[in-house]
C-alpha cells in the first residue's frame, strides 16, 4: 500500500497477478486499506484508458442533450428504476443534492406473472437508452462488463485477505449480482457558497468503483467532521467499501462516509459510479473472521433510520423505493401503504 500526498492508500491490482494470488504483502495492504479507510485508489486494474475516456465522453454527450430529450428516458417511466433524473430531485440527509444522472443496471428482460412472487423481482428489467446517441449503449455495456470483472477480482482478494476462501462471495456475486452504474453530472455552484453535489452518505452495496474526470470534489470523512479530499489521479479508480461488506465482515471493513462538493461556478464535473450489490435472492453472508481480526473491528455503525434487511432483494427494493418516491408512486403504489410490511411479505 503506497500513500499518496493526500494520504489515501493506493492499491495496485496488477501486483496480485505478478506476485501470486497468496502474496501476503499485497493482501495485507488491501486488508488494511479496507479496514482503516474503506476508501482507496486502485491502479493496475487493466481497464484501458481509452475505454474510460469513451465512457466519460458518452456521458458528456448525454448530459449536453436538451432537457426534453433527456426527460424522454426519465426514470419515472421505468418500473425498474432505470433512466434519467434531473438535478434537484434527490435529497441526502434532508438536503438537496445538485447533480443530474442516469441509472443503468443489468440489461435483462422484465419478468412477468409476478403476482405471488417476491416484490423485489420487479427490479429486473431493461434499461432506457438515449436514442440520439448510437454509441452510448455499446460503450456503457462494455465498460460495465470489464469493471464488474475488476470488482469480482477485488472481492476474491479481499476474501483471501481475511483468511477466507477466495470464493467466499461467489454465491452472491457470480451468477446475477445486482449492478447499478450511475453516470453523473455535477453542475457548478450557483453562488460562492460550498454547494452539495451529493451529501455525506455510505453506499449500500458490497463494493463501489468511481471513475472521475479532472475536476475533483470527492471527499471522504475519516474521523468525524474531518474530510479528506480524493482528487483524481491518472489512470486510477476510487474503490470504496459498501454497507453490505461492512456487515459481512462484522464491521471489520469500513463503509466510509463520502460526499461530493459542487464544482466552482463556471466549472462542472462528470463521474461514473458503479455499485456492485449482491444477488437479489440471497442473504448477506457473514464471514467467520479469525479473532485476531475481529478484535480490531470498529463495529457496525448502522443508520437507525434506515435499517438494513439481511434479505438482499428486500433491502435493495427498500432503498430504491425510498430514493425514488416518484417511481414508487407511479409503478409500485401497491407496496407503499404501508411500505415495509408489504416489502417484507415475501421474506
Ligand atoms: O460522483 C462521485 O464521485 C461519487 C458519487 C457517489 O458517491 C454516489 O453516487 O454514491
Ligand atoms: Fe457514494
Automatic annotation (TrEMBL):
Stated name of the protein: 2-oxoglutarate-dependent ethylene/succinate-forming enzyme
Pathway: Alkene biosynthesis; ethylene biosynthesis via 2-oxoglutarate
SUPFAM superfamilies: Clavaminate synthase-like (SSF51197)
Any matching Pfam family: 2OG-FeII_Oxy
Any one GO biological process: ethylene biosynthetic process
Reaction(s) catalysed by this chain's protein: 2-oxoglutarate + O2 + 2 H(+) = ethene + 3 CO2 + H2O; L-arginine + 2-oxoglutarate + O2 = guanidine + L-glutamate 5-semialdehyde + succinate + CO2
Keyword Oxidoreductase found: yes
Top-level taxonomy: Bacteria, Pseudomonadati, Pseudomonadota, Alphaproteobacteria, Acetobacterales
Enzyme Commission no: 1.13.12.19, 1.14.20.7
Single GO molecular function: 2-oxoglutarate oxygenase/decarboxylase (ethylene-forming) activity
Residue ranges of domain Fe2OG dioxygenase in the record: 176-278
Organism the protein comes from: Acetobacter persici
Keywords noted in UniProt: Ethylene biosynthesis, Iron, Metal-binding, Oxidoreductase
